[in-house]
Amino acid sequence: xxxxxxxxxxxxxxxxxxxxxxxxxxxxxxxxxxxxxxxxxxxxxxxxxxxxxxxxxxxxxxxxxxxxxxxxxxxxxxxxxxxxxxxxxxxxxxxxxxxxxxxxxxxxxxxxxxxxxxxxxxxxxxxxxxxxxxxxxxxxxxxxxxxxxxxxxxxxxxxxxxxxxxxxxxxxxxxxxxxxxxxxxxxxxxxxxxxxxxxxxxxxxxxxxxxxxxxxxxxxxxxxxxxxxxxxxxxxxxxxxxxxxxxxxxxxxxxxxxxxxxxxxxxxxxxxxxxxxxxxx
Length: 281
Ligand code: C2E
Ligand code: MG
Ligand code: MG
Ligand code: MG
Fold this sequence. Notes:
Radius of gyration: 20 Å
Largest sheet: 8 strands, mixed, barrel
Number of helices: 13
Bound molecules: ligand C2E, magnesium ion
Strand order of the largest sheet: 1-2-4-5-6-7-8-9
């Protein structure tokens, strides 16, 4: 009998096992090993404030350096980690790593930007989340002012009451809350007003197709204006071209993030990026 749970399933092999089950088991044991073996690393993508032209934040994005398969992007293992429960360990590690990095940057004089961390739906409603976050902030003696957390609409709406409560408590720690991937999920405008969020991150899918006067551009402009009227700041994700940047600037988007400025970078390259921007401003 094959158990559904990958953890218990490791090592069990039966001839009627489908390739998918086998994948699941392999992935599960490799992920567990990877966590144990610290095969993960965090890249950071700069976020630029369009008013000041300065780096106002960096988004922390996890990468898995698999010993055999090489670089595995998050979309290939995060959803799996979410269904198996490994996500909790992974995200605890990410948060601690990011806080540690933030403290290091501050000591080196790079102190005026936030670090933004993605939170899965599972982690958002995890009973120990707040205690863990408080513990780490305490341990590193850092204020929540420097931390931002990104959650998707789906993650919130799946568990509206609990999630809203957790977000409120995170905000009490001065942590900034961003709604990630806006425009891909329900994108219900009525929720926007009710959720305890500070920032709206418009998904790359939305930014990709803007041409000066098409429908997408009109909707984008409306979303930016609406967000502002609700007191939210707007981040545009996945900005790749000058035309997109111009449009966003013209329509008062606050912050941009994308390959046009920089891909996500390992910590060492972030410093170079910051130094280079200083000299070219
Ligand atoms: P996301 O949070 O929406 O992150 C933005 C993704 O868009 C990143 O992909 C980033 O590399 C990519 N991106 C940024 N600018 C551009 C651009 O100009 N062009 C293109 N083509 N792509 C751009 P990445 O790093 O592969 O991450 C994918 C997703 O994985 C993230 O989407 C996030 O949902 C998830 N993820 C990453 N790290 C973590 C983590 O630590 N915890 C959790 N729960 N999820 C994570
Ligand atoms: Mg994100
Ligand atoms: Mg996003
Ligand atoms: Mg996205």
